[in-house]
Amino acid sequence: MQGKRVVVLTGAGISAESGIRTFRDNDGLWENNRIEDVATPRAWQADPERVWRFYQARRRQLSEVEPNPAHRALAKLSEGLDHMVLITQNVDDLHERGGSEDVIHMHGRLETLRCEPSGQNERRMEDSDLGENFLECNCCAEPQRVRPDIVWFGEMPM
Q1: For 100-129, how does the pLDDT look when each residue is reduced to its tens digit (9 = 90+)?
Q2: Residue ranges of domains in the chain
């Protein structure tokens, strides 16, 4: 497929096959959580502990899942193209672990955290980063609390 340029858009279905719970299934993540309670800037202001616990559980789940054949097939497809843009609505890292490079994450990434004052992102996936306690950034002179690097409802992607 030399000379071909392709754009691919993926969503929850591709990662569901790997065991990532989706938000809208009958037993999905919204089943026990209202969107307003865990996925908005207002929720972060009102109950940061609840929001933090919700996303830390999602972050821990990443170590329990593996890319599936669809993730690997997209990586293989890109090898035979002059240029492929892979855009995902997913916040997991399964495309990258499946071999894809330069993935555009529309809604953010679970494996990174964002310093609120500076806006800088840090990849933080060590076991010590996955507990219930809030984490602080490594970028400010006086460390600041970080938040999930997720685009919440009511926010614009950065």
Answers
A1: 999 999 999 999 999 999 999 999 999 999
A2: 5-110
Model pTM score: 0.89
Rounded CA gap, 100 and 79, in Å? 9
Distance CA 156, CA 140 (A): 24
Could you say which of 71, 83, 105, 107 is catalytic? Answer: 107
Q: Is 66 exposed, middle or buried (0-12, 13-18, 19+ CB in 10 A)?
A: exposed
Q: CA 49 to CA 28: how far, in whole Å?
A: 21
- Active-site annotation holds for 105: no
Q: How far apart are CA 139 and CA 59, in angstroms?
A: 21
